[in-house]
């Protein structure tokens, strides 16, 4: 436990972290990878280059400092991060390495303002916070390994089928190489895929949502090929999976993880909203709902640019025809002339609060959504304007956690 004096010192640094937090975490990652380049086998290099990971860490450090005397307040955030750590194989032995470099980064950025007293307080505070993560993750590792069909670390899976779902999304059906059972999972969870790309010095790990219902002999992931542009690099792993991995090849996976999961006990109507490849966890939820809770009304709403990049449209449409509880609604921001001629969508433009209100008359519904961050900000704002309670709003970031607070003049994209 921290002394009252240490708690007071940590809380006094909160305003400093609010201003300098991202600078500290950027410096931290520079120092960490310089001192321990082997950790580049674990971290997502693209998230580092785009600044997503330093920002997410800065927010986590700020929250921990602000709640240092009541760490139970950040336990939900801890569990979310711990799921990702367990899926990536982060170990207890790595926490001291992180702590050493984080303290060095604080000292480096703040200079003389980081007194010995402040560094000592943060050293003790980091030890307490790290132990919370270590304990939570230890339970998760044990649960993953001891579950029926479970395993520790990475397990080889064979690509049984590779299916092109749209111009940019391809599904991979993965079966265990040893032919044994696989872990059950909750709709909305993900797996980590490990790949070694020829010519690349480090291993690449990526987390992909499971896109089919639980209880089958395979896992399915549906991957968008990220081409990249002048603003961001292309996706090395997604392009590698699309271009180089074929049926019969082997991929290594960790057991399913994640806390963005469907509440199957809830009997109220549920609304599943997705943009682009954000539909992958939603399809898992939809397939589960129609099978397990046939009386529960479900609204499936998907936004895409047009039909060319709209994945799984036919399968979802057929599913809705077979199950009267489900209704599907498509929103295209850039429909083609063929889309318009065939009237293959329900709304042109973007998903709005008014359209949602028209589609979903039931005000007691629970909402789940996923997609690009600008899209999710738009949906979150729409749901808030409709007065949906915060407890009924559930969402998942693909990558490090960010903020859904709307920023002025932010583009609306899917």
From TrEMBL:
* Boundaries of every Globin domain copy: 1-138
Question: Keyword Ion transport, does the record have it?
Answer: no
- Among the Pfam families in the record, one is Globin
Active site (catalytic residues): 95 (charge relay system), 137 (charge relay system)
Q: What EC number is given for this enzyme?
A: 1.14.12.17
Residue(s) at site: Influences the redox potential of the prosthetic heme and FAD groups: 84, 396
What does the UniProt keyword field contain?
A: Detoxification, FAD, Flavoprotein, Heme, Iron, Metal-binding, NAD, NADP, Oxidoreductase, Oxygen transport, Transport
Q: Does the keyword NAD apply?
A: yes
Binding of FAD: at which residues?
190, 206-209, 397-400
UniProt catalytic activity: 2 nitric oxide + NADH + 2 O2 = 2 nitrate + NAD(+) + H(+); 2 nitric oxide + NADPH + 2 O2 = 2 nitrate + NADP(+) + H(+)
Where is the stretch described as Reductase?
A: 149-414
* Sites marked Involved in heme-bound ligand stabilization and O-O bond activation: 29
**Which is one GO molecular function term here?**
metal ion binding
Note on cofactor: Binds 1 FAD per subunit.
| Occurrences of domain FAD-binding FR-type (ranges) | 152-263
> What GO biological process terms are annotated to this protein in UniProt?
cellular response to nitrosative stress; nitric oxide catabolic process; response to toxic substance
- Could you say which residues bind heme b here? 85
For activity, the cofactor(s) needed are:
FAD; heme b
Please give the InterPro entries that the UniProt record associates with this protein: Cbr1-like_FAD-bd_dom, FAD-bd_FR_type, FNR_nucleotide-bd, Globin, Globin-like_sf, Globin/Proto, Hmp, OxRdtase_FAD/NAD-bd
Q: Which PROSITE patterns match?
A: FAD_FR, GLOBIN
Q: What does this protein's UniProt record list under function?
A: Is involved in NO detoxification in an aerobic process, termed nitric oxide dioxygenase (NOD) reaction that utilizes O(2) and NAD(P)H to convert NO to nitrate, which protects the bacterium from various noxious nitrogen compounds. Therefore, plays a central role in the inducible response to nitrosative stress.
Its domain comment says: Consists of two distinct domains; an N-terminal heme-containing oxygen-binding domain and a C-terminal reductase domain with binding sites for FAD and NAD(P)H.
Membership in a protein family: Belongs to the globin family. Two-domain flavohemoproteins subfamily. In the C-terminal section; belongs to the flavoprotein pyridine nucleotide cytochrome reductase family.
Protein name per Swiss-Prot or TrEMBL: Flavohemoprotein
Q: Which organism is it from?
A: Paenibacillus montaniterrae
């Amino acid at each position: 436990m921290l002394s009252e004096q240490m708690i007071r010192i940590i809380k006094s640094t909160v305003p400093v972290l609010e201003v300098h937090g991202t600078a500290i975490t950027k410096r931290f990652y520079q120092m960490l990878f310089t001192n321990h380049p082997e950790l580049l086998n674990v971290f997502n290099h693209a998230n580092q280059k785009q600044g997503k990971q330093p920002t997410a860490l800065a927010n986590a450090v700020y929250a921990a400092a602000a709640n240092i005397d009541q760490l139970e307040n950040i336990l939900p955030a801890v569990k979310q991060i711990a799921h990702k750590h367990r899926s990536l194989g982060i170990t207890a032995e790595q926490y001291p390495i992180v702590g050493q470099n984080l303290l060095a980064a604080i000292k480096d950025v703040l200079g003389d303002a980081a007194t010995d007293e402040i560094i000592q307080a943060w050293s003790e505070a980091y030890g307490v916070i790290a132990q919370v993560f270590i304990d939570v993750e230890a339970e998760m590792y044990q649960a993953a390994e001891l579950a029926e069909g479970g395993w520790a670390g990475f397990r080889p899976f064979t690509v049984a089928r590779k299916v092109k779902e749209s111009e940019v999304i391809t599904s991979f059906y993965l079966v265990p190489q040893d032919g044994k059972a696989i872990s059950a999972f909750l709709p909305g969870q993900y797996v980590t895929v490990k790949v070694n790309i020829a010519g690349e010095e480090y291993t690449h790990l990526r987390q992909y949502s499971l896109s089919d219902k639980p209880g089958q002999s395979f896992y399915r992931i549906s991957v968008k090929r990220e081409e990249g542009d002048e603003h961001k690099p292309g996706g090395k792993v997604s392009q590698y999976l699309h271009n180089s991995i074929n049926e019969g090849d082997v991929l290594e996976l960790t057991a399913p993880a994640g806390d963005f999961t469907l509440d199957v006990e809830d009997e109220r109507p549920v609304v599943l909203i997705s943009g682009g490849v954000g539909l992958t966890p939603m399809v898992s939820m939809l397939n589960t709902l129609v099978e397990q809770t046939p009386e529960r009304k479900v609204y499936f709403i998907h936004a895409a640019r047009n039909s060319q990049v709209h994945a799984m449209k036919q399968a979802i449409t057929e599913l809705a025809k077979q199950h009267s509880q489900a209704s599907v609604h498509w929103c295209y921001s850039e429909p083609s002339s063929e889309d318009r001629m065939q009237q293959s969508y329900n709304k042109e433009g973007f998903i709005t609060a008014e359209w949602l209100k028209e589609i979903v008359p039931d005000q007691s519904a629970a909402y789940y959504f996923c997609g690009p961050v600008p899209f999710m900000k738009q949906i979150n704002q729409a749901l808030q304007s409709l007065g949906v309670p915060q407890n009924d709003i559930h969402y998942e970031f693909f990558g490090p956690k960010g903020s859904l607070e709307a920023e002025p003049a932010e583009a609306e994209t899917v």
